[in-house]
Every structure is written in structure tokens, then in C-alpha cells.
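Assess this one:
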Amino acid sequence: MVAFTIFIVIKDLYAIKKIGVADNIKCSGPKYNVRKEKQMAYKFEIYKDKKGAYRFRFRAPNGQPMFSGQGYKSKASATNAIASIKKNVADAVVDDQS
């Protein structure tokens, strides 16, 4: 079975809902979404690099890495670094050295 996605721009979502096909149609454009796509959340990823060190990176919802951490000898140390960031980030100051 082949699934197709139909992208349409529509101004009156009531018309789609009235005829009962809202679950089968995804409209393009943020203003006209009938069914919202599941969006990835911000997340930390822990991984092992080529040298065997544990590292982490922080990814945005679009999948792009925003920052990464140094290498750690243990996974627990990398996990502790993530916990420290999550705990202290709200109080961090911006030191613009440009």
C-alpha cells in the first residue's frame, strides 16, 4: 500500500472538517495546519567518540547540533555535565567578548 500526502493551502478549515477528511489531509503553511506534525524536542545526546571518550551534544528541534561538550572518561561524568548545564543555565550570564 502506498501512502500519499496531499499538501494544500486552504482558507476555510471548516469546509474540510465538515466533509470529514481532516484526518487525511495536511495543509501547508503554519496558518492552515489541519493536523500538526509531531515535532522533535530539544535534546541532549550522549555518544562515544572514535577515541572512546564519552561526549554529548545538544540538538535543536530541527535536528541541528547547537553545541557539544568535551570528552569524558566515563558516561557518568558526561551525564553529570548535562545535569549541571540543565541546573545552571537559567542563571548564566552572557559574556560578549567580541
